[in-house]
Specification:
This protein is of the alpha/beta class and 643 residues long. The protein binds alpha-methylisocitric acid and iron/sulfur cluster (SF4). The site of iron/sulfur cluster (SF4) has 11 residues, from loops.
Length: 643
């Protein structure tokens, strides 16, 4: 039997485990990336491991999230990350150089390579035919130190693309269609592999838009073959030397199959408050809007910007709409400024933002109260924009630009003919904002610069044998990491300070939670399906750890968050019978006995609640069991390094 493309790359990087479905496998990571909002913690963890130089082929530290510097904290974090990078062998992409995923695709991604990044949209690299996986900072730190990344050998979904996109329909509409069909938990436990005739009609940046938003499916990653279009992109970036053609074997077997006829797609929008709440733009047409934001790691490529400039050319944004545009990288911004496209946007009234995440993570441009915002981004969770009662619709750049002109949701197909805007033969390359590290011989001369807001890793303890703890919080289905550990301009500067950021933990759901949990000292949280979907931020595990949360008991978990809980030494438990969710209420006392024994040997964990026994599953690997016993991945890694 042949192999799928993902399987081929995983197999070539296998360092441990049995190469069969459902087994835990350890994968060597060729490259790593971090961004600044997760990076400070990741580098604190890396430094704590005591490995002098990174052992990867390429590691890059990006500054792109916390770029609104309304106090010293973010600038201190940037300086800290820059100094660690310089000393330990990591390239440093300075603030202003662009969004990590866009820049990594342009300058470092390579077909057939593996990449792990402390950001859930790392799968953007799948557009280049790489296995690119988002993970918590600690997993990335371990990979930088030469350690493998452990995943369950995933199931593979084949998405066969047929035909080609009609004018005004774009890559964003393709992934919105996949989300409509599979839902935000449809990808959990899977890699999504694209193939078929339609693949060759999509350029690498278009493919990257699709793999980027595979994160919203909950998938481990998504991947496209590496073909002539990949070569064309790499040539245009002056990097054709890294090209290798890659595709699945013709007789590869998949666990699930989906066929999408590109020619049948139309402009789509994900409605509030979930990326899978997808409707045709045509059905929403005429709805009054207040804001349009164009950019983010999903839709900020050169071609995206050129389409927007074409639509805005010679026109003015509707007076009731605020339009912002954030080109994804310095390369994109330089090119549209050189060719005049930027002037067209400015003339039409666009508010030009720096090349960074910006409004996508609530760093500015929060909509007005009850505002309707059309965004070319990938997440529209409640409150993420910074305005709790705003309604965010995720759309293509074409739909966003067309609607900015009319002031209402507009199907771009009503604009008439659309010329084909294609990728340039040569991108403008100037890597002057990527600072190389010093050589090994010089590393002692580099001082690590740590600001006063940068605190250490929270205290951990080996797993207790018995626990009698109250349930400090009960929540429902589809809780996102934006609920658990909100972001936004006010809270993000606390990413390097777990005691401080913990004061905001779960405040979106219950403002009294942090103080209550802290006072209780030790507790458990109960939740529903797909708990922890969204971001890779390990803060959504580290803040609960700091607040004394010992276990999270839910109906099901999202992949990265579950891994982050394990890394933090918090038990990720699922109800054997989902109906037992109703048997625990906030305030109930939950009793566990003989925990260490069961965690070590496997089997159900029994919790006693109100005199009743509830069976819970701890579905984790052998290695994860050892991590849990040690009190988390940092302790486990330290123990193992000292052996
Ligand atoms: C996001 O899009 O939610 C973020 C901000 O990029 C996160 C990382 C973080 O919280 O720092 C992600 O996607 O992993
Ligand atoms: Fe940045 Fe938004 Fe992409 Fe996250 S999803 S990396 S915040 S642009």
């Amino acid at each position: 039997m042949g192999l799928t493309l993902a399987e081929k790359i995983l197999k070539a990087h296998l360092v441990d485990g049995e190469f069969k479905k459902g087994s835990q496998i350890a994968i060597r990571m060729d490259q790593t990336l971090t961004q600044d909002a997760t990076g400070t913690m990741a580098y604190i963890e890396y430094v704590a491991m005591g490995v002098p130089r990174v052992k990867t082929e390429k590691s890059v530290a990006y500054i792109d999230h916390n770029t609104l510097q309304s106090g010293f904290e973010n600038a201190d974090d940037h300086r800290f990350i820059g100094s660690v990078a310089k000393k330990h062998g990591i390239s440093f992409s300075r603030p202003g150089n662009g969004i990590c995923h866009q820049v990594h695709l342009e300058r470092f991604g390579a077909p057939g390579k593996t990449l792990i990044g402390s950001d859930s949209h790392t799968p953007t690299g799948g557009g280049l035919g790489m296995i690119a996986i988002g993970a918590g900072g600690l997993d990335v730190a371990v990979a930088m130190g030469g350690g493998a990344y452990y995943i369950t050998y995933p199931k593979i979904i084949k998405v066969e693309l047929k035909g080609k996109l009609s004018p005004w329909v774009s890559a964003k509409d393709v992934i919105l269609e996949v989300l409509r069909r599979l839902s935000v938990k449809g990808g959990v436990g899977y890699i999504v592999e694209y193939c078929g005739e339609g693949v060759k009609t999509l350029s690498v940046p278009e493919r990257a838009t699709i793999t980027n938003m595979g994160a919203e499916l909950g998938a481990t990653t998504s991947i496209f073959p590496s073909d002539e279009n990949t070569l064309e992109f790499l040539k245009a970036q002056g990097r054709e030397d890294v090209y290798v053609p890659l595709s699945a074997d013709p007789d590869a077997e998949y666990d699930k199959e989906l066929v999408i006829d590109l020619s049948e797609l139309e402009p789509l929008a994900a409605c509030p408050h979930s990326p899978d709440n997808v409707k045709p733009v045509r059905e929403l047409a005429g709805m009054k809007i207040d804001q349009c934001c164009i950019g983010s790691c999903t839709n900020s490529s050169f071609v995206d910007m050129m389409k927007v400039a074409y639509i805005l050319d010679g026109k003015t944004c509707d007076p009731s709409v605020s339009l912002s545009v954030a080109p994804g990288s310095k390369q994109v911004l330089s090119m549209i400024s050189q060719n005049g496209a930027l002037t067209k946007m400015i003339d039409a009234g666009a508010r030009i933002l720096e090349s960074a995440c910006g409004p996508c993570i609530g760093m500015g441009q929060s909509p007005n109260s009850k505002g309707i915002s059309l965004r070319t981004f990938n997440r529209n969770f409640e409150g993420r924009s910074g305005t709790r009662d705003a309604g965010v619709y995720l759309v293509s750049p074409e739909t966003a630009a067309a609607s900015a002109l009319t002031g209402v949701m507009t199907d771009p197909r009503t604009l008439g003919d659309m010329p084909k805007i294609t990728m340039p033969e040569k991108f403008y390359v100037n890597d002057n904002m990527i600072e190389p590290p010093v050589s090994e011989a010089e590393m002692d001369s580099v001082e690590i610069l740590k600001g006063p807001n940068i605190a250490g890793y929270p205290e951990t303890k080996p797993l207790a044998e018995n626990l009698t703890v109250p349930c400090s919080l009960k929540v429902g289905d589809n809780i996102t990491t934006d609920h658990i550990m909100p972001a936004g301009a006010k809270i993000l500067p606390l990413r390097s300070n777990i005691p401080e950021i913990s004061k905001h933990c779960f405040t979106v759901c219950d403002e009294t939670f942090p103080a209550r949990a802290k006072e209780l000292g030790a507790s458990v949280i109960v939740g529903g399906e797909n708990y922890g979907q969204g971001s890779s931020r390990e803060h959504a595990a580290l803040a609960p750890l700091y607040l004394g949360v010992k276990a999270v008991i839910v109906k099901s978990f999202a992949r990265i968050h579950k891994a982050n809980l394990i890394n933090a030494g918090i038990l990720p438990l699922t109800f054997k019978d989902p109906a037992d969710y109703d048997k625990i209420a906030q305030g109930d006392t939950v009793e566990f006995a003989g925990l260490r024994e069961t965690v070590k040997n496997g089997g159900d964990i029994i919790a006693k609640v109100n005199g009743r026994e509830i069976a819970l599953e701890l579905d984790i690997s052998e290695r994860d069991r050892e991590i849990m016993l040690a009190g988390g991945l940092l302790d486990y890694t330290r123990e193992n390094l000292s052996k």
